Amino acid sequence: MVKTNPAWRALRAEGKTANLPEEKTETAKPRIGVLAIQGDYDAHASALQDVGAEPVLVRKPEQLKGLDGLIIPGGESTTFLKFLERDGFLESLRAFAAGAPTFGTCAGCILLATKVLHPPQPSLGILDATVERNAYGRQIDSSIEETATKLGPDFDTGPLETVYIRAPRIQQVGKGVSVLAERDGFPVLVRQGHLLAATFHPELSTDRRVHRYFVNMVGEARDSTPHSAPESIHKPHRKS
Ligand code: GLN
Which of 62, 72, 82, 207 counts the most CB atoms within 10 A of its CB? Predict the structure, then answer.
């Protein structure tokens, strides 16, 4: 959004700037990382572009620096873990996601959870939830459903298409976790402060509401931390 007064612009062009108020310049697009180790990161990057954010593919821990938010995509959580357990990537990711807006979809949701079952495996352990892997069966049991959402008046404009691919099931969530959509009584989209997690793949539908919602979360976090150092990966965050 550019807030430029044309009269001030003319005065500035003439070098008469002494008594002019400071102008707000165009707000930079939020820079949102997409973990690009494996899985459908390209589809997330396109979805972010569609909703006015700048996607940044993240393949190394140092690329997390200065990002406004992060998406951990679907894929295979065990493969992610193998890769992340090298070079301290898992620790950097944990530090980032502990403070900055982070959205995990499917395998990304599994990585964020505090407890993983079927079988148990390590995780970032920051989303207060118990997640059962492959709870709906094998690849052949993948499905496309529709669900109501509780994202707020601007977003709850009709049923949301939800694509499940070897999806996990969120069995249980802690008190600080809001359930934003359900399937058969189980949460499929949840929020815990600056964290968002889905057991489905919003990037594979044309409906961009979930990405728009996440980019709004990123905007809220940015607005609440005006003095945050852009180089810091430990951005403070005000929980909403
Ligand atoms: N079944 C996968 C896992 O356990 C997740 C599937 C997905 O991300 N689509 O990691």
Answer: 72
